[in-house]
Amino acid sequence: MKILLFGANGQVGREVIAATADAGDIALAAATRDDADLAVQGSVAALVARARPDLIINAAAWTSVDKAESEAGAVRRINGEAPGELAASARRHGARLIHLSTDYVFPGAPADGPLDETSAARPLNVYGETKLLGERLVLDACPDAVVLRTSWVYSSHGSNFVRTMLRLAATKAEVSVVADQIGGPTPARAIADACLKIARRENGPGGVFHFQGAPPASWADFAEAIFTAANAKTSVTRIETSAYPTPARRPLYTVLNCSKILRDYGVEQPDWRRDLPSTVARILNVDPSQL
After folding, report:
1. Where would I find the H helices in the chain?
2. Which CATH fold would you assign to the domain 2-160+186-213+255-271?
3. Checking DSSP bridges between strand 182-183 and strand 217-218, what pairing results, if any?
4. What pLDDT is attached to residue 55?
5. CA dihedral 39, 44, 45, 51 (to 10 degrees)
6. How does pLDDT run across 207-247, given as a tens digit for each residue?
7. Other Cβ atoms within 10 Å of 238 Cβ, number
8. CA nearest 257: which of 136, 149, 126, 146?
């Protein structure tokens, strides 16, 4: 199976590359912005036409949530219009498509339980609005595509919450972290593995699927777990979102119901608490047994 990956330099993209390195059944073509710039109309379609893949994984996106508020046009192009063009190209060339999306399509109001794929999507910020647009354009152009909503992605590389907290722990005895936003930290490697499990399932169903780490946590909970994994002495002061204003509003509750992807693809939720120590060790460049 030939897979064309967009977003090869991102967190999930790097993990897809690592996960397929020794996979004899997969030939991976990994594309960066130099190969196909989502900001340029026609760029992704041209690459698909040249590569002729069996399946496409789109892990490329504008992910700077706050900066998106002042760059709405560019973000709409990258997160919305380009994925729609990619989906149309995939359908034209007979390729399957897995497109990554986000929990930030939801408004985050308190809920009776985890949000499922039919829960009302009403984004609070430009990033979420453009990702929701991308979802809709993808499924309009390619109804058999898989749209994979995930959340709070972290890994040993790139820009993410784990790396930020470890950087702060090196110089600070105390950090203030939001405690009233509840979601699910998700290892990038688990997302890559989920994509590949979906890819290997022939004639699998399309549509929107949720995939998120468990159990639910607040950012403050996550920070405390990071410091514990690193044996850091830094303490966490829990604050409310209102005490930490940002350009983009954040949803307060984005716990996702992941039963559909388990039922249809056999993909189980990862326990981020089990993954975190090894990720922290890789970032700190130490043997996990030393922590």
Report:
1. 11-20, 43-51, 65-68, 72-76, 82-92, 126-141, 161-169, 188-200, 219-229, 259-265, 272-284
2. Rossmann fold (3.40.50)
3. antiparallel
4. 97
5. 160
6. 999 999 999 999 999 999 999 999 999 999 999 999 999 99
7. 16
8. 149
| Catalytic residue from among 104, 127, 154, 253 | 127
Which residue from 59, 48, 49, 74 is spatially nearest to 13, judged by alpha carbons? 59
3-state helix, strand and coil shares in percent for the chain, rounded to the nearest 5: 40, 20, 40
Q: Is the pTM of this model over 0.70?
A: yes
Nearest-5° angle of CA 201, CA 261, CA 205? 50
| 253 has catalytic annotation | no
Domain residue spans of the chain:
2-160+186-213+255-271
* Cβ-proximal residues to 263 (8 Å cutoff; 6+ apart), any chain: none
The amino acid present at 51, given as its one-letter code, is A
Q: Write the CA distances from 193 to 79, 132, 140, 163, 205, integer angstroms.
A: 23, 23, 26, 22, 18
Do residues 123 and 108 make contact, with C-beta atoms less than 8 angstroms apart? no
